[in-house]
User: Fold these one by one.
Assistant:
Number 1:
Amino acid sequence: MTQTEILWKYQESEMELDRLQKELESTPERQKLRKLRRILQEQTEKLEAHRNGIKEKEAELENGMQKLEALLKEYDLEQDDLNIMMEDEECTAEELTESRRSMEKLLEKVNALRKSLTECQSWIAKTAEAIKETYAKGAKTKRDYEAAKAVVETEKMEHKPIIDKAQREVDMIAAQLSPDLLKRYKTIKKKHPNPVARVTDNRCSGCGMSLPMNTIKKFSTGTAIIECENCARILCCEKPGE
Ligand SMILES: [Zn+2]
């Protein structure tokens, strides 16, 4: 068997190994596992966002409480002033009205602030509830994930002898190839999944281009390794192995 023919067999064995590995990686249980992993990831991100949101709102709440305290103090002082003014006979009606108006404005501010603080508190409570829910869901996802993982491990164990056998076949054929040729094959493989192409009707079956006459001639007479001038795949005779 020529090196090119061995290389063809090598390519076939590699494709078979690849097919087996892909088959194992795409079982329904593997897909389920991947999906569950995504869901877990999303739940973790959600929790993180909720926690950060609560931190921000708590700071906002703290700040608002301090403002409220200051406003209430201010209101008390205005109230004291008004009481003094009311007992003061020198005080005009305009001055009293002015003082009352200023207190009303303060009260409006207090009420608006109270409202926003209440909203803030209920947002925190609602988000804390959402965190609890996400935790509960997360625990279930985690259980499902562990179960799927166990099945996937079993599948892997069951497939291992088949894949190992295919890998041994690849290694065995590789041992019959010259290292230089194997290296060349691997370089071409970076560009083409099938680095070896058959010659069919004087065409490269890899890219479909017809081969020049001198290439065909070289090809049919010698045992040299010939590449397609167009796609650089290594060319192999029409019926390899025969
Ligand atoms: Zn080609």
Number 2:
Amino acid sequence: MSHDFDVIVAGAGIAGLTAALTTARLGRKTMVLSGDVLGGQLMSIEKVDGYPGFPEGVPGYDLCPIAQEQAMNAGAEFSQTNIESLNADGDGWKVTTGEGDMTARAIIIATGAALKHLNVPGEEKFTGKGVSHCATCDGPLLRNKVAAVIGGGDSALQEALTLAQFAAKTIVINKAPELTGQQAYRQLVEENAKIEVRNGSTVQEILGDAAVSSLRVLNGGAASDVEVNGVFVYIGLQPEAAFLDGHLSRDSTGAVPTDGAMRTSLKGICAAGMVRVGAAGRAAASAGDGTAAAISVDRYLADGVWPV
Ligand SMILES: Cc1cc2nc3c(=O)[nH]c(=O)nc-3n(C[C@H](O)[C@H](O)[C@H](O)COP(=O)(O)OP(=O)(O)OC[C@H]3O[C@@H](n4cnc5c(N)ncnc54)[C@H](O)[C@@H]3O)c2cc1C
């Protein structure tokens, strides 16, 4: 049975871009559905640390367009649309997208994970009016003002360091009794006179009029209002794979189970990057997953064997 493509890659973060450049280099007709953000999470990160080849770090918004160009030069096609559903179609899969249906023998799911919301009053109302998920984008608007970062892991600490370049003061509001990010970030945060850490604190409400003006914070049973002009939320990630419902069971977090070669239990379907169970949460790991998924798909296209 003939299909529109050998491989459809859903997602164009570093996992999807790397998968696509690999399948295209292997001569497989490849379509990438980029979703809303071509480049994914890295596009809003000023300094991606720990990515091989860049000892000083690299801006994500520089890295991803290079990877996309590499994939396109190898022959991958791109469509800025979402995968909405997929269904078996002969020896392959039919994918329904915002731009219509398309078919492929194999699919690589690299739809990543979205930053979780706080789900407190005011969050939705003030999104875009002080509530943000992107310190690099919105930090410059907070010159001489006060920023709050919610969370205490790597992402929260990295973004607090970015915000401290702009804001007069950055307050890290962390639910846990201690910061959980890696030691290098914790040290930089602790040494930065413009950053204050409040552990054991939870945000109850985001307050303001036309824009954010304060946060109601609970600490040790006592609530107090903290004046801030911007709120940046980094409290974890939610895998993006609801379109698999009815086809593939996912774990309690919504992540997709795979074997070590990124194969799911559905013939011809791999998952790579932050969307899969056990993702390491770093850009190089997502890129590696993308490569492994591409190799698995290439082998499957050659021999039709799917050993899960
Ligand atoms: C604040 C922050 C700082 C970080 N800093 C670092 C760092 O310094 N070093 C490091 O190694 N890692 C860092 N990370 C982690 C890194 O960003 C991720 O590990 C990596 O970007 C994940 O890549 P991914 O391709 O798996 O997913 P994502 O980057 O989430 O990409 C997902 C892609 O899927 C697309 N998509 C979503 N839904 C659909 C759909 N239905 N159909 C089609 N496409 C869809 C999106 O548009 C996007 O293109 C950081 C993360 C955050 C949040």
